[in-house]
Amino acid sequence: SFCQRGCCHSLVAFVKQAFVSLCVFADSLSPPVNVTIKEVKANSAVVSWDIPEGDPVIGFAITQQKKDVRMLRFIQEVNTTTRSCALWDLEEETDYIVHVQSISMSGTSPLSEPLRFRTPKEAETQASKSKDEVTMEEVGQTTQLRAGELIIIVVVLIMWAGVIALFCRQYDIIKDNEPNNNKDKAKNSSECSTPEHPTGGLLRSKV
């Protein structure tokens, strides 16, 4: 009986010591840092964070809460090295508070500093999207205009090259024909001035 009591006391003391050690180890796990929110839309957002170097993190836990409302949403992922998470089913024009915790084999870290953000109106989101689409369309039109200008320039250059080539060809033909024309003129002049032709020259008959 005494032996059994001693074993029970030893077992209880061991469990207590293990629990205390586990709690101390869990408390030594640092909370995530650099918690930021991005891609905020009317019904969704993305929260991201960093983990202090050296922490044996195997996952994360996110607590999402509406401002001034007790209702919480708890998101937990383990066996992952992801450093971001998508928040969905949000309400437009609503304030939210987000906390992030690191998860290790021994438990979770303390909560990170609270991150507050507000979702925009659905109309504002659509307007921003439409603006981006118009911008992309304008870029496409500008690209098409530039391509059309290049085509016009190329066509004009080709036409000018054809005109110059045609001019050079005509000039060569005219130049080649000039000696023959001079010979013909000289021949005609000599025939008209000789006395062998009674109808021409100074000895031209009056009959």
Blueprint (SSEs and pairs):
Blueprint: H1 2-27, E1 33-38, E2 45-50, E3 59-66, E4 72-78, E5 84-87, E6 95-104, E7 107-108, E8 115-118, H2 122-193
Antiparallel strand pairs: 1-2, 2-5, 3-4, 3-6, 6-7, 6-8
- End-to-end Cα distance, whole Å, is 177 Å
Q: What are the secondary-structure elements, in order, as H or E?
A: HEEEEEEEEH
Number of strands: 8
**Poorly predicted regions:** 1-8, 18-26, 200-207
- The pLDDT mean sits at 76
**Biggest sheet record:** 5 strands, antiparallel
Total DSSP helices: 2
The CATH superfamily of the largest domain appears as Immunoglobulins
CATH first level of the largest domain: Mainly Beta
Structural class: alpha+beta
- Which shape, going by the Cα principal axes? elongated
Radius of gyration: 48 Å
What is the CATH topology of the largest domain? Answer: Immunoglobulin-like
CATH architecture of the largest domain: Sandwich
Beta-strand content estimate? 15-25%
- How much helix, percentage-wise, in residues? 40-55%
Organism: Amphiprion ocellaris
InterPro entries: FN3_dom, FN3_sf, FNDC5_C, FNDC_type_III_4/5, Ig-like_fold
Subcellular location: Membrane; Secreted
Keywords: Glycoprotein, Membrane, Secreted, Signal, Transmembrane, Transmembrane helix
Notable traits:
207 residues; alpha+beta; Immunoglobulin-like; 2 domains; five-stranded antiparallel β-sheet; three-stranded antiparallel β-sheet; 2 helices; 23% strand; elongated; disordered C terminus; membrane; Ig-like_fold; secreted
Short structural summary:
The chain is 47% helix and 23% strand. The protein has 207 residues and is α+β, with helices and mostly antiparallel strands. The chain has 2 domains: 2-120, Immunoglobulin-like (Sandwich), CATH 2.60.40; 121-207.
